[in-house]
Amino acid sequence: MRYSALSLLVNAFSGQKNWTPVWREPEPKPEYDVVVVGGGGHGLSTAYYLAREFGLANVAVVEKGWLGSGNIGRNTTIVRSNYLLPGNEPFYEFSLKLWEGLEQDLNYNAMFSQRGVLNLFHNDAQRDAYARRGNAMRLEGVDAELLDQAAVRRLCPFLEFNDVRFPIQGGLLQRRAGTARHDAVAWGYARGADSRGVDLIQNCEVTGFLVEGGSIRGVETTRGTIKARKVGVAVAGSTTRVMDKAGLRLPIESHVLQAFVTEGLKPILPGVVSYGLGHFYISQSDKGGLVFGGDIDGYNSYAQRGNLPMVEHVCEIGMAMMPMLGRARILRSWGGVMDMSMDGSPIIDRTPIDGLYLNCGWCYGGFKATPASGYCFAHLIARDQPHEVATAYRLDRFETGHVIDELGHGAQPNLH
Amino acid sequence: MSGGQPNRLAEGGLVQRDREIAFHFDGRRYHGHAGDTLASALIANGVRLVGRSFKYHRPRGVFTAGSEEPNALVELGRGAGRDPNSRATVTELHDGLVASSQNRFPSLGFDVLAFNDLLAPFLAAGFYYKTFMWPAAFWEKLYEPVIRRAAGLGALSGKADPDAYEKATAHCDVLIIGAGPAGLQAALTAARGGARVILADEDFVPGGRLNGERMEIARTPAHEWAAKAATELASMKNVRLLTRTTVFGAYDGGTYAGLERVADHLPAVPPHQPRQRLWRFVARRAILCAGATERPVAFADNDRPGVMLASAVRTYVNRFAALPGRSTIVFTCNDDGWRTAGDLIAAGGAVEAILDTRGAEDIAHLRDIAGDAPVFTRARPIGTAGHKGLSAVTFLNANDRPVTLSADCLAISGGWNPNVHLTCHRRGRPVWNDRIAAFVPGSDAPPGMVVAGAAAGAFSTHGALAQGTERALEVLGDLGSKQPASGIPDAEDAPYAIQPVWHITQSKGRAWLDLQNDVTVKDVEVSHAEGFRSVEHMKRYTTLGMATDQGKTASVPAIAVMANLTGRSIAETGTTIFRPPYTPVAIAAFAGGLRGRAFRPIRLTPAHDWSKEQGAVFTEAGLWLRPQWYPRRGEKSWRESVDREVRQTRRSVGVNDVSTLGKIDVKGADAAAFLDRLYTNTMSTLTVGKVRYGLMLREDGFVLDDGTVARLGDSHYLVTTTTANAGLVMQHVDYCHQVHWPELDVHMVSVSDQYAQFAIAGPNARKVLRKLVDARFDIANEAFPYMACGEITVCGGVAARLFRISFSGELAYEVAVPARHGDAMIRAIMEAGREFDIVPYGLEALNVMRIEKGHPVGSELNGQTTAGDLGLARMISAKKDCIGKVMAGRPALTDADRMTLAGFKPVAEGEELTAGAHFVGIGREAKTAHDEGYMTSVCFSPSLGHFIGLGFIRRGHQRHGDKVRAVDAVRGRDIEVEICSPHFVDPQGERLRG
Amino acid sequence: MRLPCPLCGERDHSEFVYRGDANVVRPDAEAPGAQRAFHEFVHLRANPAGWHKEHWYHEMGCRSWIVVERNTLTHEVRGAVTAAEHTLARRPAPVADEGGR
Amino acid sequence: MAEVKLAVRTGLGREQPLAEEWPGFSMREITGLSVWWLSVARKDRDGLDKACTRHLGTALPPERRFVETDKGMRVLWAGDRQWFVIGDGAHIPAAIARLAAVTDQSDGWVAMHVSGERTRAVMERLCLVDLDPATFPTGTVARTPIEGMHALIASDDAEAAACTILFQRSSARSFVDHFRHAADSACGRD
Q1: Does ipTM exceed 0.90?
Q2: Are residues B735 and C34, on separate chains, in Cβ contact within 8 Å?
């Protein structure tokens, strides 16, 4: 059923009787052309683009839990393309362009709203580092503005400019960046893929890979064996647990990233604001909750929950930036499992096993990458060639030294 | 009823009738008593309409008597102290309390947004995913602003939170969460066993349900028993009783987070006191006695003001002597609901009828509680009347015929849900218990936590007291403490008889599940129809349980409705994840005292006060404050001050406070060997009295930091690091020693704060120093050449150290004295330099001089550069391994096409340079593919009279003389620059060796 | 989360800085295939969902590096030794006299 | 050269040591202390123990403990085979200096004495460690952070809740400010 104001009208007068399931719940077929492991944002968008762009609809997405149960179900929903390095910026700008047409493309309102992302800086050295990043964006044709303190004060009068330890000197603004309703992205892609014939199979965990003569033949799952010529793994924080089964050791550590939402409040934050001398980012959802987060807790974890010191640390930075936050109450805190790579940038590449493709290493940036990650992974799976904007995301880059290290913190995942 | 408060019972309740309190709600003045909550006071004053629901703006009244309240959310206070979304049911009344309703325009009584309720058919669950897509631009311009303005309940003031907050850490043997019957009994038992006990309760009076029930414990009224127990506990040395304190999070290692509302119940926060305190409880064991929360039943129009939980109605009667309604109907599916009827009758209130869904045989033993109130069995409510307050209830009687009775209060009991939240904060899952039709704690509660009382599903008072005692004895056994005598006071032990009813299917209208987010049974049905069948999908699609009460009264009935739709059991359907905090906690409470200037510690050099006296302008360098420049009267721009400082230093002499640099003392027989493994160049060949510039790599081959190594004795070295990396390098050297080479006899300790250090630079530097260094030390060039170092004395015998190192490129020494003399030393240096017109120079002037010399700093050592990039490849010794050497050889790090450090000067006369610009070939389009590098540091060079810069550009060291464009789009600049050597001033370094 | 510092006793983990897997050992730079060995040492990780030996630095306490055995699924901690002890215990050959280069 | 005597500033950058009072809590800066940092290799540990017994009148204290020497100095455990030796004009005998790395830290650390019956109430607002007499008896030493700053806390008299606290000079003012706020809250101000 096509969604529109008309469809709402029809259902209004029929007591909501005509809504049909957003996706089918098929039994897994014994064989597909492609099996995508992971029913999160990246897995679902991969399947969608395989069907829509690359004509491969005989595809199954196998998900161990319910669709969108991983990081796409719990993140701070920020979408931006303000990256520094040539290995990243083209990819994230491609993603932002896909975001800009997503609702119409999926016929599903993911509420992508471009209200701007402002990264604050507090001294000359940081100003120049942000200028370097802003100029890299402009070279890629992306909007970027370097604001001085007066401009920041006009945009965000609620920031603290006086009683401060680290005065706010200015900010790097990307107006086209913003936020989106994360669950809706997963559901939109799921609906789009399902309506094009892709089988979305929930409660179906991969327990092993079928490999013959160095080539993939399919996967073992909790709901039986599924054969396939090509298998794409996009399971974020569970990457190691799945790829262990293919005997691959990866430059990945799984870490817990906490995020927080406050009780619903009347509009007060125009867009996304992030602090410069402490990891803190915040925006306001359409339901009025302030959604914010900061650093990962900093130790390996699959527990999908974090600890108290990091909650305190994030709130200290929030109060340093915006003491008006004080009386907003945290309603809920949660933790996701981030697949932190050794240089802070993702991996979309072939693997030593022919026909087995890997998509991981998303650190903090998985949500904003959902469209481009799906598109590029589909391109790689379909054509066995990386998409032009994702050529740098090689698995072997760590051995050759072509690392993509935005912050320059080196091979220490909890510093990215 | 007493005078001004129409619904206040003449006697009874725990409120202090002698202390009348005036307060305001929506501009009207009312009176309550000390011991009231805002909700009980409003009820006593006959106020029923207190809010509007989130989506349809339906009228909302007080629904509960605790922190699970979905409806009575108000804004407290005014101005910067405004507190949105405060629960009236847990807001302690105090003099001058000002509250206003939220989420309505223009007024609570007449809210135009209630129009949404008429559009309800169009606004079913998830409607916004299906529309607002055309035209695309309208989303930010029209649709979203409308949605956002309607969203949210209360509003932040937009001003900084004026109150102070505080954090504290408390250790104990046993943390007991909840001071109801189970908690009080557990605390008494544990404390008598000698354990160190913390008992915390969210209420301002200990006792929990005991304060809301009409019953006895050990033949005394339950609330008196509770008060006596609390008094005894408060008097025990090994007990800490914290009221108004919610334990809201269970974290790892027996750490629990609590929020103490220190002053929210006072008209104003007392001086030097925090408004709230965040507690970190570190407990060897915890006993969860959090009680249970009653749940409603879903049927058409079950959301009108006046519809309340049965336990809440009797709490308002028993504890607050406030009558929620003049004539009350009690609707229940279990025996417990009948207590409300009994208490109402005992207090003189009118019970219109008792509706029980069960058969006559199930309620025979309860009949006499009803007195002469009519009892209807097999009764199922199918509708209510009364727009802004309940006026009538229609139900099907045992013969399935509708009966309508007038009533202004409907007390509903759908049964009780144990408060399992804290057992699930570490991803534990509750399990369904069919006997009591509720989820109870699973076996995977956090290690060290046990559960007692209603929270474990033991709903009788005796059950709570017994389990409190048993769990405490178990814990004492665990801890090896003695087992005290532990009689259990006698109390009612009524069986919990329930036949759960979730949704009256015969009722046709909208049956409400989540009263705040306006989620109906129909929405759950739509969610099911569209495939959102897992409880996690249902929650997200319908937003059920995502409001400020987190579905405490709504979730279980909703799970039951979905289970019924999918044909799976409630146990199979399961719950969503319970997450901290149990109830919302202010962000300021998590930040505590680390606010404003105290956000992070401030590190000051020993000469800080002196620099301040000179009027220095400071900047932050990590946690340090460093002088940037020392303006003089009449200087109109910072450039004027900086140019003067540079010229005077290069012409005569200047002094700079370098105390912030990291200093690590390294001693031991293997010190030299160890330094060889840390630095790329060889340090073991350094002779005593000499200094060497060194480069440190990370193990991945990129540069970590640079600095100097001075050999002060046979096995005594002093390492310096950049200010920014001091902590990182200390951590790195400890790691390399303790993890890689623990066998080495080497000892490192930071001495950054032990010394004040000053750089004295310029042609007259030696003359100034000569006046300070005690005569017996020869500091002439021959005796103390460039890169020499030594231990000396200054100013008549004060032990000091002298280093012939120069960052400015001038003839320069660095003199270090113990920090206690730092302030005196800078004054002595300035005095000695007066005849040479010595100037203090700041970070900015230092930056100019080091750029003129081409020295890299943080902006060049940015973690993405190799030794080769910095033109220092030759510093990597071929004769030995060092940290990072192997990985520095990787193909990409030795690629000839890498960007290397070069100097830049503007081609056009008088043109300025900017850092952060990217280099693009002349005549080529400015795009990523043509990006050849970036400018890292720029300054106006007083020595050369024009701007100069350092930066990285492909094969920079081979392209001196070439011209490229420096494109700085964010600053609107695109200028031609010439690549040159980064060593602008005195490239051969004659001055250094003067 | 509480970590049992072998020297200071049990402390909140906020006193420590985490580095990572303690099972990786710095290879011999002179051995053949050193670059591949260093790549594996610096980059590749077991990253298990379960028991994990990992390095923590008691930066705000006794400044010792320690090896903690912690479960990455449940955050349960079952012990810790100093990193020096962990390294020396794994040395195959008898530890030469301390002064030996 | 004219004799230019270099004046001395206390760790808190003052002429006179800081001393402040609250009802039930007092905080007093201790000046003129020598603070020596000792670190010994595993092979010399026993030798150093013997040397200390002979020259300082006490063996080296084990983890988390401190001891008084016969010359009124105090030896505090500070890490893996590391100790602080502090006292008025304390000096390190050569026999000890031969066996251990000895580094003067007299100016890097500031010392403060805190006491009064409200001391534990003040400290629980600042410190993560349990200072209850049962777990932190007299003679105990703990290195732990206070509001993000390094500190070494020594229990002089557990019952009287009297402690000596060592903290770093460069952040000393921030350190003391946090103590003031905690004391204001715990004790009120007269």
Answers
A1: yes
A2: no
